Structure formats: C-alpha cells, structure tokens
Amino acid sequence: MNPVEIIRAKRDGGKLSSEQIKFFIDNYLEGEITDYQMSAFLMAVFFRGMNDDETFALTETMIKSGKVVDLSFINGIKVDKHSTGGVGDKTSLILAPLAAACGIYVPMISGRGLGHTGGTLDKLESIPGFNVNLSIEDYKRVLAKLGVVMIGQTAELAPADKRIYALRDVTATVNNISLITASIMSKKIAEGADAIVFDVKIGSGANLPDEEESKILAKKLVSVSRKFGKKAIAVLTDMSQPLGNNIGNWLEVEECLELLNGVKVDDLSKVNNVLAGAMIYLGGKVKDISEGEKIAQEIIDSGKAFGKFLELVKEQGGYVEYLNAYKKLKRPEFKSEFRALSGGFITKMEAHGFGMAAIDLGCGRKKADDKINFLSGIVLKKKYGDKVLKDDLICEIWSDDIAKNEAGKIRINDAVKIEPEAPPKKELIIDILE
Fold this sequence. Notes:
This protein is α/β, with parallel strands linked by helices. 47% of the residues lie in helices and 15% in strands.
C-alpha cells in the first residue's frame, strides 16, 4: 500500500478498508509516514468524513497501537468520564475524586488542550510537581490504593492517539466526529474502564458547535462503547458560554478548590453533579442519575471529595501546600479589565471567543511545542443573562505580557453582546442518552 494513494482515496471521498487504515496508522508510528502526510490524511478525513466501519477500524487500530490495561484484579466497577471539550470545563478535577469518595474506581486518562478548549492534563500540571506521566504499573497501583488516578497517554497506552491528538490541535482538524470518537474511545478502552460517562458539549465553545452533529457524536460514542462491551451514558451539556467563572489552567484549579470547599458556582455545580450522578449510577451505588446527583452534592458538602483530591495530588507528586494556599491568589504580572460599554443585559458570552482569548493569553498552544503559562487566564464577573450598568466589570484578564491582554480584550469585545432586553434562559442539561 502507498500512503499517497490512501490520502488521495480519502480526499476524493472514497471508503478506506480496515487494512488501509491500519497500514497508515502503524507506519506513521514507525516513522515511515511523515507528520505532513498524517496532517494531509487528517485534513482529508476532516472534509470527507468516515463511515461507521472506518471509524470503528480507526478506533480499534489506535487501541491496538499500545497496551490495554487489565484492571480485573480490582474488585469493583471502574467508571470514567470524558468531555468532548469546552471552555472553562474543569469538572474532571471535581468529579473524579468525588466518585472515588463514593467507593467507585475512577481510571482517568485525559488529554491536553485541543484547539480553543482547555485540557485536564494542563490544569493538573499547573499544580507544582503533579506527575501525569505514570507508568502502567504505577497507574494501577494508585488506582487500587486511592480509587482514582489521573494521567495522560503513555508510550504504552494509545500511543497513536497521543501523536495524532497533538497534530489535530495545530492543523485545525479537531472538530470531526470520527476523529473525536476514535480519540476518545481509544483512551477509554485502553485504560480499562467498565463504564463511561460522556459529557458532549453543544454550543459555540464545543469542538462540534452544531447541535445536530453533537447529538450524532453522542450516539456514536454510546454505540461504539457498547461494541467494545462497555456501559455508557452521554450527557449533552450547554457550551454556548464558558462553564464556571474561571478560564485558564491554575485559575480553573483554583475554582475547583473553591467548589470542593463549599462554594456554589451555579452552572459548574449543576453540570458537575449531573455527570457525577451518572458515574455513581453506572457504578451501581444508586437507582438513577437524579439520586446520584444528590449524593454527589452531599459528598462535596462533607469534605470527602476535597480530602480525596488532596490524597490524589500527594500520591502523584503534587505540592499539597500549594493547594492549601490557593486563596493567596497566585496571578501573573499584568492585569487588565474588560468593562461594559453600555447598560442592559448580557445576551451573548460566546465561549469560543473566550477560548481563543485564553489562547492569546498563553493558556493554550498555537504550535505543538508552545509552552503554556499556567497562571494566565480570565476571571468572569458577569455571565449570560446578567443585568449590567455601563462600566460594570465583565471580566479580569491576566497574563505575563500587557500586549497579550490587549489582544485578549479584542477577542472578548467580539464575544460579548449587551442588549436592552433580557435574553431567554438556556438549559444547562440539554439531553441524556442511556
């Protein structure tokens, strides 16, 4: 087989065989196919798509590019959660220790920032010393000991996805149903989970902004999970505006710590508790998701979830004292303010625009080897539907370069709209597919 012929076939709308897909992925990992050829292949898939057979073959090839962890030695149901990506989406850091505090095992393999969306690994690494690069043996040891572990793909687990994931981030090939499905499922199957809760985002800040495409993705994720013998629930959640109040790696950790210590953040708390409730339900601890949602808030209020998070950070090498001092407000050098240009109601707070502003501030990557500024970010003081007066503070902008703040303000100005009339209320939980 010839890689150029495979690229051409997909570019021209052809269907690829499982053998062609395996050849292309395997040879890419072996260095016989270059980054620029893989980039061309990804762009062809982005525009032409893949059918169900191709998507399954791509997923299976990515899984078989590394090891599949055997967690059968752990006597309990292993449940993970995965988000399709959003702005300000930091629920993994809350619900993973929360579910573990309920007696559910949570083997979580996450990714880095992708496009305009943040990444769980980048957030975790904003905690000094936190090691997301555990070996498989340490991964299994920490999970058995604490009931939760949070790492990234290793050289052994879905290595094909790890390399392709980085390319998708910088080649504008993120928002494709088949590529998203294969990426997510290869990690979830490789990590050894028995059941998976998918948080499928809908809205401008999602990797798939179109509502119908997001619903197709949700169905495909549940369907592929079942093909691999896994239980699954997909929760479709709103991502038309950022989730919570903080955007940026350490800022989002800070907001998680506040929530774990009893602070209520309406939208973040609701989405987190529904997702955690679904995990608790799949873990066999309650009879339905709504009961699990109530249990989730009780576990947070009891302090058990926060205690479990501290255990996790310590076990994976993180500096716990840094977390305990989070109220000291660690910030970069430069702060700017974005204020309302007129009075009225906020009728648009476009998540995508805020996500791109965060990239400008250094929260994410424009090139695969870019260094992240963990402290940079945005703190929202108003949200969609809020009434504001002229000059009211909409958000704070933080970075290590005042020029970056100004670039961020331009993005935010385009992302915010204020009108005389109050906008309609938006539903946070759009649908749940079991």
